[in-house]
Amino acid sequence: MIKTLFTKEFLDSIRDKRSIFAALLGAFLPPIFFAAIMTFTLEESTSVDELYISIENQQQAPHVVALLEQSKILHADMPEAGKTFELDGESLEHSKITLTFADDFAQKMEQGQKATITLLADYSKKGSREEISRIKTVVNRYQSQLVTMKLTARGISPSLLSPIHIEENDTSSPSSKSALILGMLGVMILVAAFVSSTNVAIDCSAGERERNSLELLIMQPVSTLQVVIAKAMNTAFFGAVGATLSIVLTALVIPFIPLHKAGMAFNFDLQLGLTIWLLLLPLALFAAAFQLAVAFHAKSFKEAQSYIQYTIMVPVFLPMVLEIMNYKNAALSYIPIFAQQQAISQLIRGDLESYLPFVGGSIITIIVSFAIIKFTANSLKSEKVVLGL
Amino acid sequence: MLQVNNLVKHFGDIKALDDLSFLAEDGQITGILGPNGAGKTTALRVLYGLLEAEEGTGLINGVDSQVSPQLARKEIGIFPDKFGLYERLTAREQISYFAGLHGLKGKEKEQALDDVIEKLDIADIADRRCEGFSQGQRMKVIIAQALVHQPQNLILDEPTRGLDVMSTRILREILLELKQQGKCILFSSHVMQEVAALCDKVIVVANGKVAAVGTPQELCERTGKTEFEDAFVALIGSDEGIAA
């Protein structure tokens, strides 16, 4: 009986373009989204952009200009209007900062007198402080080199100028740096299990009622429990396929994320992928049971959509918050969704101590899913739910 | 055989069924005639075991549908009030699904499918998806899925609604043939001519109660009217809104 019910549900869903599209979107979007954000953040944090300023009287201090160029601070003529100028056919932004060496700069330097550099900038402009300090750093470095050389020439140790030495040590290890980022990856895969099955869940519950075929189905000699189990199996199947695709895609995109730029190393191997996959199967069932319960209690397809939009916040945002806080508690391993989040998070970080809580968590997830299915089946006996009153 | 005894059912403050009883026998077409909102669909839903009545019983071949709905439903084919086809399935898959729900399997199921498809003359649309079917084609698919397991009882809730003349005639022929086979057919309608032309027994329902029972002729004689429509108006009280 379940086979007959399931076959029909599956045929009905697999031919629904919207369901297929939503499932694929749910599977593909999270990893791509993740990869894009990661790549962007890493590029942003590690690379320094060229800064274009106007440097007047360059012939007075070719050394300083060379040093500035090494630090990617380059000369460009001040654009006549606007902020951008053309260079090799590319449109670039000018910082509107002017650095002018005094006319007697070279002469004064030679005589060992104070030479003047004028820095002309709008200090209130957004980001100008950072740009100015970049320029000042270069000039100061040149200055201190000069001082060191002059003192050395006079037989004085340059260390007199800096009696204190600050030693900086970064204690973050490559794996702990990547932990938060990779933890987010785990949350993304969790989300796929939910999002991929949402449309199927709504279509076969609120949708089926809206198309007037639910009532006729309930009038057949089948129990509501059989009906809901078949629908949950089908919905879970889509969630599981979505999660599987998501894991595969994640494994494929990870090599393209420039993790090495942030000094991270992460190996998404087959064993890790399979373990995560096994953890997600009970979650797909839970997601199906949960979304079916919500959708059956909505009056229409649209209402079901908006209910699920809100209820899906729970499985999406709570694990994300826990992930950011890096909150760990043994009890969490026995609550559906959190069990999976904790397990995946620990697996990815490589600090999983025992599989036992997660086997327990998976079993509890399955039990809770069946309890929700039973609840939905019972409520299908009520005329309110069947007729959508 | 279909039977309901003393059904009472409220929706909020509204009394939908008020001590309603009737009997539909094998080898007969029994019509339930009543204005919109008389309680026809509600009574049938109680009979399927879909709704629970506060009082009374619904019996299908003697099985109480409130007590063991699944057993009782095995003996009926239903043409429901609102019917939706699975638009993404073909007609054959749709009928096959319902055959499966009634426990048909393998060769037996295929044979039943072939028989019912031939009988309703829908071989040309059997392998097309249901989306885009006309009302007449939809009606035939629904009848086919109601008959595929060869139930003793067939219940039709306003079957001719939205059908053209040709489809209505086909339906009428099918019902008469089933009657010849000794099946029990119960059908609700608010269309007078249809009931008068087809039914051996008419149960007139109004306000959740049975207003009269008899053959169309008997009802006309009893009210002293020559036209069945006039008889109907006289039976349910002239202040009722009815659809001709």
Automatic annotation (TrEMBL), chain A:
Pfam families assigned: ABC2_membrane_3
Listed name of the protein: ABC-2 type transporter transmembrane domain-containing protein
ABC-2 type transporter transmembrane domain residues: 28-372
Record bears the keyword Transmembrane helix: yes
Membrane topology category: Multi-pass membrane protein
Primary localisation category: membrane
Transmembrane stretches, start-end: 20-42, 179-202, 236-256, 276-295, 355-373
Keyword terms: Membrane, Transmembrane, Transmembrane helix
Cellular localization per UniProt: Membrane
Record's GO cellular component terms: membrane
MF GO annotations: ABC-type transporter activity
Domain of life: Bacteria
Automatic annotation (TrEMBL), chain B:
CDD domains, alphabetized: ABC_NatA_sodium_exporter (cd03266)
ABC transporter domain span: 2-232
Signal peptide: none
InterPro entries: AAA+_ATPase, ABC_transporter-like_ATP-bd, ABC_transporter-like_CS, ABC_transporter_ATP-binding, P-loop_NTPase
Pfam family, any one: ABC_tran
GO molecular-function terms, A-Z: ATP binding; ATP hydrolysis activity
Swiss-Prot/TrEMBL keywords: ATP-binding, Nodulation, Nucleotide-binding, Transport
Entry-linked PROSITE patterns: ABC_TRANSPORTER_1, ABC_TRANSPORTER_2
Family statement drawn from the similarity comment of this UniProt entry: Belongs to the ABC transporter superfamily.
Record's protein name: ABC transporter
